[in-house]
């Protein structure tokens, strides 16, 4: 052990930061939620470079101009990458690994994340086609939870 | 320093609650200065952000801001200090020779997102001061205020008059969107004590704000504007975190920072050469304390003269004609706003708060408890 071992003691501390009121631009998220209640996605396209974002921001990061053109995005897409999560975000082990996907939906340039179910994680491949499994219409509330998971096409 | 690096454009706004998201505020501010200069984001070689992660409520917070500031796939770094240090950093990048333009963007949402005062608690020594629970930004300022009043033979009424003088300047400034009209001595004196002797109106207000500043090399500056404002000198200095040995009645680090900036600018007699000073006065006693520490005014005369409006826009030295940080303190953007105010004063564009025709101006920013760290930039035309 180090020579200074007897020269220090430990003072326990915690960092509990203040409360915050985080504002977010509502339009892009509202468009997306409203569509999800009906089982579809709506993004926003940049009129300058045609980039399509989901959820849509109020500006295009490439062109630095305001954007507001709603555009339909498919609920089918392609797996761009994935990971099998062996633990939850607190580090607690999961009984069954959860497959977290990064998916590029058809007609969209930005990628979204979601969970893939009913598949052995050892068999998942980049490039695999997937589609959204929506909750039944009567259970949808216009929130991110309306999307149950992804499944193979 | 001769004509090597210039400020060519500014855009800023500040107020209690600007009614914007952080992304929208950053976008609007950067878009504003680009449009003024008639350029797009690709004309900017590097971006330097300034904000505070504690106050944003997210760490490495610049990663969220590449988009709205126009830095997507650009050279971007961040200063976790007052924005005036980002201005210095930008000047250094241009002086180094590999960049012709730099965009500084400093921002804060302390007006509506989070209360700023007690956050300083998290910059305290966690094994001692934080455990003791007595020291914070306001109690530190109150201790310094009392020491300053005592040293200069001033009473609490002086704090009311000094604050009223600063707030009157702010009320005249259309770049401060607060309703400060009628913030006279009696109104200040009737505001509540926060940490005695400091009352609410002796202390900076929670403020939203952002400031964008475009710097350019000499050649590029002359292409972008016919009225560049040159950076003549800059200097920084930091005092001890620990108060033992600090003279709270002045700021040794402000004096040292100013000395370095004046040496670079070739200024031997700042009191007669500097026509305009914009200092970050977070509390009512700080403007005269800083002006005296930096050699701009006599230490005994400065406080009374300041409270009487003797450093107004018609004075030989105009001190904070903008209203200073006491009128608006968007934490981290405040020092950058001082640079922006100096820019428009030197160009004669300050409207109702224009202070004559200054040729040399000083801008100041600070960080830490009781003026621990100070940075000074000297600007000229």
Concise description?
Chain A is built from one helix and eight strands.
Report on this structure.
The complex is a heterodimer of chains A (153) and B (381). Chain A has one helix spanning 27-37, and strands spanning 41-45, 52-53, 69-73, 76-87, 93-105, 112-116, 129-134, 147-152. Chain A is mainly beta. In chain A, the strands form two sheets. Chain A has a five-stranded antiparallel beta sheet with strand order 6-5-4-7-8, with no helix packed on it. The longest helix of chain A is centred in the N-terminal third of the chain and has 11 residues, at 27-37. In chain A, 24% of the residues are buried. The longest helix of chain B is centred in the middle third of the chain and has 17 residues, at 156-172. In chain B, a hairpin with a 5-residue loop joins strand 11 (360-367) and strand 12. Chain B has a ten-stranded mixed beta sheet with strand order 3-2-4-7-1-8-12-11-9-10. Chain B has a two-stranded antiparallel ribbon with strand order 5-6. Chain B contains 14 helices and twelve strands. Chain B is globular. The mean pLDDT of chain B is 95. The A-B interface holds A 11, 13, 15, 17-25, 57-59, 61-62, 64, 66 and B 20-24, 27, 30-31, 34, 40-41, 54, 57, 66-68, 70, 72, 109, 112-115, 118-119, 122, 126-127, 130-131.
């Amino acid at each position: 052990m180090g020579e200074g071992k007897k020269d220090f003691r430990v003072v326990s501390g915690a960092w509990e930061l203040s409360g915050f009121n985080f504002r977010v631009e509502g339009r892009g998220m509202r468009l997306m939620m409203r569509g999800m209640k009906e089982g579809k996605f709506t993004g926003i396209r940049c009129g300058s470079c045609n980039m399509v974002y989901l959820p849509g921001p109020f500006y295009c990061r490439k062109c630095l101009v305001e954007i507001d053109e709603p555009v339909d995005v498919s609920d089918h897409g392609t797996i761009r990458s994935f990971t099998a999560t062996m633990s939850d975000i607190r580090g607690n082990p999961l009984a069954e690994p959860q497959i977290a996907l990064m998916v590029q939906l058809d007609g969209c340039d930005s990628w979204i994340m979601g969970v893939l179910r009913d598949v052995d994680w050892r068999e998942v491949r980049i490039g695999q086609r997937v589609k959204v499994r929506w909750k039944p219409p009567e259970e949808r509330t216009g929130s991110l939870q309306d999307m149950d998971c992804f499944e193979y096409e | 320093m001769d004509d090597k690096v210039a400020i060519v454009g500014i855009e800023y706004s500040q107020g209690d609650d600007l009614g914007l998201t952080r992304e929208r505020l950053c976008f609007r501010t950067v878009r504003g200065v680009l449009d003024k200069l008639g350029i797009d984001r690709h004309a900017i070689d590097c971006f330097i952000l300034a904000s505070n992660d504690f106050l944003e409520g997210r760490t490495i917070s610049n990663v969220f801001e590449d988009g709205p500031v126009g830095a997507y796939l650009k050279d971007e770094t961040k200063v976790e200090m007052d924005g005036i240090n980002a201005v210095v950093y930008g000047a250094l990048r241009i002086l180094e020779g590999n960049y012709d333009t730099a965009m500084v963007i400093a921002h804060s949402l302390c007006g509506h997102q989070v209360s700023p005062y007690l956050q300083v608690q998290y910059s305290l020594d966690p094994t001692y001061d934080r455990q003791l629970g007595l020291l914070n930004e306001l109690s530190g300022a109150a201790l310094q205020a009392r020491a300053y009043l005592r040293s200069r033979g001033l009473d609490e009424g002086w704090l009311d008059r000094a604050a009223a003088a600063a707030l009157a300047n702010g009320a005249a400034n259309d770049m401060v969107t607060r309703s400060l009209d009628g913030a006279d001595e009696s109104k200040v004196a009737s505001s509540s004590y926060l940490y005695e002797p400091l009352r609410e109106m002796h202390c900076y207000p929670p403020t939203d704000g952002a400031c964008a500043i475009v710097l350019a090399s000499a050649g590029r500056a002359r292409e972008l504007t016919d009225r560049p404002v040159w950076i003549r000198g800059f200097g920084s200095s930091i005092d001890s975190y620990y108060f033992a040995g600090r003279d709270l009645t002045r700021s040794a680090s402000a004096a040292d920072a100013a000395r370095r900036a004046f040496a670079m600018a070739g200024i031997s007699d700042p009191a007669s050469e500097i026509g305009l000073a914009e200092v970050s006065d977070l509390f009512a006693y700080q403007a005269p304390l800083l002006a005296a520490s930096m050699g701009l005014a006599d230490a005994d005369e400065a406080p009374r003269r300041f409270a009487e409006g003797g450093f107004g826009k018609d004075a030989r030295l105009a001190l904070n004609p903008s209203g200073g940080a006491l009128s608006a303190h968007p934490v981290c953007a405040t020092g950058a706003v001082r640079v922006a105010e100096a820019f428009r004063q030197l160009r004669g564009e300050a409207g109702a708060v224009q202070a004559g025709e200054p040729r040399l101006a000083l801008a100041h920013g600070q960080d830490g408890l009781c003026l621990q760290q100070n940075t000074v930039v000297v600007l000229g035309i």
